[in-house]
Amino acid sequence: MVVYYLPMMRAQSTGTDIAQERLLVSVAEQLKVPLTQIARRAELAESGVLPVDSRAVRTEATAALALVDSYLLGLELLTSQESLELEPVSVSSLLTDVAHQLQPYAKHYNVALEMTLAGKYGPVMAHRAALKSALLSLGHTLIVAGGAKETPQDRRVILAGHKNAQGIAAGLYGSLDVEPADLRVALSLQGAARQPLASLHDSGAGIFVADALAQAMESRLRIGRHNRYAGLAMTLRPSQQLQFI
Amino acid sequence: MHILLIEPDAVAAPLYAAGLQAAHYTVATVASAQSAIGAADQQAPDVVIMEMQLGAHNGIAFLQEFRSYAEWQKVPVIIHSFQKPPADTQVLDVLQREYGMHAWLYKPQTSIAALVSVVHRLGITV
């Protein structure tokens, strides 16, 4: 019975189902990283090679849980029958909040975390929790990528907001060797290829989760540049109402 | 015995290095294929332990370059990766024959003790 039922389900999968399955595979692959770190850390502590480092375990577990929560939030928002309620959100305040939450993870990976806000601008229309989750997911991914760099100037992640022609771009930047076409290819390979973005050594799930959250807010992730750094950002519409105040 | 450990994850690398050092091996850790060639040149490894999923260059590209140098053609390679071993035995044969792969260990299911045991079984004495 099961043997026949599963292929039937598979055959009935829509394009959206398949995209969600691939995102889930990507997240599952990504979760192996912190879980393996925790398992090996426990082994070394049990054998007396290293002392128990509870702060490290907490940092690794917190990042894993954040990825799970971001994935679930994206799924919830994308599958909800109700239209998403956007609210005015201050990009500078949100980036500050995200930077604060990413700080322990950046320290864990020995990566410098910076924040830049170019110009003055009012709030954007966004789903606050979704935008925060997207930026956190991107941050975790870029920090791990930054940790693999071998020169201190490359071990850097910058949270930045700036105006562009469409609105306000909020994103994270680092020493990523990526071009706009790379993201399009990566999005089509997520969950199917082990390294959808060649410049990352992992599944890059944080990027795909962030893109799902951006889609829920009717935006998309784009490759962008901040000074000499490449990164990923989403453009959000300014809050017209509050601009007149 | 001197081990060259190619591990791109900056948090995991010192954990594996500590486990190998506790087993009395000396370890040089690098995060990328490019750095690995330089480290091999300076430190003449007896064994290479490597992740296949490396940023910028993948593991096969590294192995091709590494094996192209005459002095490193006999150095055994242990693949220790988040990527599962290929199901195709012909691929494994090629990796063993052409690139000196001694073992392919799936990282999430391989304890540090098991990794040390595989290194130990190489029986290299220096």
What does this structure look like?
The complex is a heterodimer of chains A (245) and B (126). With 245 residues, chain A is an alpha+beta fold. In chain A, 54% of the residues lie in helices and 17% in strands. Chain A is built from eight helices and seven strands, in the order αααβαββαββααββα. The radius of gyration of chain A is 19 Å and the shape is globular. Chain B has helices at 12-22, 33-43, 59-67, 89-99, 112-121, and strands at 2-6, 26-30, 47-50, 77-81, 101-106. The N and C termini of chain B lie close together (6 Å). In chain B, helix 2 runs parallel beside helix 3. Classes of the chains: A alpha+beta (245), B alpha/beta (126). The interface between A and B is medium-sized, with 33 and 27 residues.
Number of beta strands of chain A:
7
Q: Pair with the most extensive interface? A: A-B, 33 and 27 residues
Total of domains of chain B: 1
CATH architecture of chain A: 2-Layer Sandwich
User: What's the alpha carbon Rg of chain A, rounded to whole Å?
Assistant: 19 Å
Briefly note the structural class of the backbone of chain B: alpha/beta
Which series of helices and strands of chain A comes N to C? HHHEHEEHEEHHEEH
Could you tell me the mean pLDDT of chain B? 94
CATH topology of chain A: Heat Shock Protein 90
Question: So how many helices of chain A?
Answer: 8
Q: Give the fraction of residues assigned to helices of chain B.
A: 40-55%
The CATH architecture classification of chain B is 3-Layer(aba) Sandwich
Q: Which outline of chain B best applies?
A: globular
Strand order, sheet with most strands of chain A: 2-4-5-7-6
